């Protein structure tokens, strides 16, 4: 269903809009990257300490956009901000189809984000979700999870072409997600733990990595077997999380990193960070996201070990390090549609 179809039967309202604030957060893929492209499941974990925030005033004197990348008239925004503009415009069109153009003409949008760009942590989806939520809040429109997802996906298509939907779901999730064939549900976690995410300082290249893996899969049966095994490891990781067996999850992560390296999507920087994390006491470590740059993620049993791992990966060259608690949860909880606040 398109974003426009979501609101096809809604009557138009007065052009006047208020102001609203929306938030979302980053994510890390714990298991399943690349294999998810071929129908395998994936597990993603939200990173609530990496937040994206948007505030929109729909009664501003002029249409403006303010971000850390660029500030100026909305209509003059550079192409790299097209996904952000799409989130604004698509949401206005979906929620106020008759008044969308007039509302955009008086929209002042301000976006900030702690999620680093091009690191596989869901930056574009987090910003899009924050913008969608801010507009919905300004229009006093409660969003259900599927409606929010569809609107974020419209932005993600501009950013990535054919997104799986994993990022759009995980940047608004309250806990670890099982994602398969476009459907997402919260996973049970049976024990406390801590994730450490380390930035190589090198921008990832997801498009190149995905294309490279596809070429290897088409040419080499061993690559196809590696992708199948990566899919099996996602199921093993899910079972380990549910049972509270972090040692098993860590072992699965280590094996997954080796397979991803065989598929040529690791890098010397990623290999160095994962090795440093393991040496400092991590139960497992692997690249996260598309690879060939970006970030690594390590699983630790407790905050003390996580601090040791954070120090070790920093010493090994990480340009940014973030920790995130992994807390016990139950399965089959709805994905929260909250995160937006009307402010006027």
From TrEMBL:
All copies of domain GHMP kinase N-terminal, residue ranges: 102-168
Cross-referenced SUPFAM superfamilies: GHMP Kinase, C-terminal domain (SSF55060), Ribosomal protein S5 domain 2-like (SSF54211)
InterPro entries given in the database record: GHMP_kinase_C_dom, GHMP_kinase_C_sf, GHMP_kinase_N_dom, Mev_gal_kin, Ribosomal_Su5_D2-typ_SF, Ribsml_uS5_D2-typ_fold_subgr
UniProt keyword Kinase present: yes
Gene Ontology MF terms: ATP binding; mevalonate kinase activity
Cellular component annotations (GO), alphabetically ordered: cytosol
Occurrences of domain GHMP kinase C-terminal (ranges): 240-317
Biochemical pathway: Isoprenoid biosynthesis; isopentenyl diphosphate biosynthesis via mevalonate pathway; isopentenyl diphosphate from (R)-mevalonate: step 1/3
Superkingdom of origin: Bacteria
Alphabetic keyword roster: ATP-binding, Cytoplasm, Kinase, Lipid biosynthesis, Lipid metabolism, Magnesium, Nucleotide-binding, Transferase
One biological process term in Gene Ontology: isopentenyl diphosphate biosynthetic process, mevalonate pathway
Region (Disordered): 1-26, 322-344
Full protein name: Mevalonate kinase
Organism in which the protein naturally occurs: Isoptericola jiangsuensis
């Amino acid at each position: 269903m398109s974003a426009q179809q979501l609101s096809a039967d809604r009557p138009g309202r007065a052009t006047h809009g208020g102001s609203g604030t929306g938030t979302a957060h980053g994510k890390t893929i714990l298991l399943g990257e690349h294999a998810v492209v071929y129908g395998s499941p994936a597990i993603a974990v939200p990173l609530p300490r990496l937040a994206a925030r948007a505030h929109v005033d729909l009664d501003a004197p002029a249409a403006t956009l303010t971000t850390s990348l660029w500030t100026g008239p909305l209509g003059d925004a550079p192409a790299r901000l097209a996904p952000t503009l799409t989130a604004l415009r698509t949401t206005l069109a979906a929620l106020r189809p008759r008044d969308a153009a007039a509302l955009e003409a008086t929209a002042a949008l301000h976006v900030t984000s702690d999620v680093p760009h091009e690191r596989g942590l869901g930056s574009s989806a987090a910003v899009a979700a924050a913008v969608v939520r801010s507009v919905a809040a300004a229009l006093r429109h409660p969003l259900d999870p599927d409606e929010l997802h569809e609107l974020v996906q419209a932005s993600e298509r501009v950013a990535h072409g054919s997104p799986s939907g994993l990022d759009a779901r995980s940047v608004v999730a309250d806990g670890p997600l099982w994602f398969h064939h476009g459907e997402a549900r919260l996973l049970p976690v049976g024990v406390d733990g801590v994730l450490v995410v380390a930035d190589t300082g090198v921008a990832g290249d997801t498009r190149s990595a995905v294309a490279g893996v596809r070429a290897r899969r088409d040419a080499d049966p061993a690559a196809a077997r590696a992708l199948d095994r990566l899919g099996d490891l996602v199921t093993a990781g899910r079972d380990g999380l549910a049972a509270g067996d972090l040692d098993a999850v860590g072992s699965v992560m280590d094996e997954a990193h080796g397979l991803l390296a065989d598929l040529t999507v690791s890098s010397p920087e990623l290999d160095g960070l994962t090795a440093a994390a393991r040496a400092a006491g991590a139960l497992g470590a692997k690249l996260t996201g598309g690879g060939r740059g970006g970030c690594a993620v390590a699983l630790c049993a407790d905050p003390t070990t996580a601090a040791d791992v954070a120090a070790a990966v920093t010493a090994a060259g990480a340009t940014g390090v973030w920790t995130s608690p992994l807390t016990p949860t139950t399965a089959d909880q709805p994905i929260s549609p909250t995160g937006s606040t009307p402010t006027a």
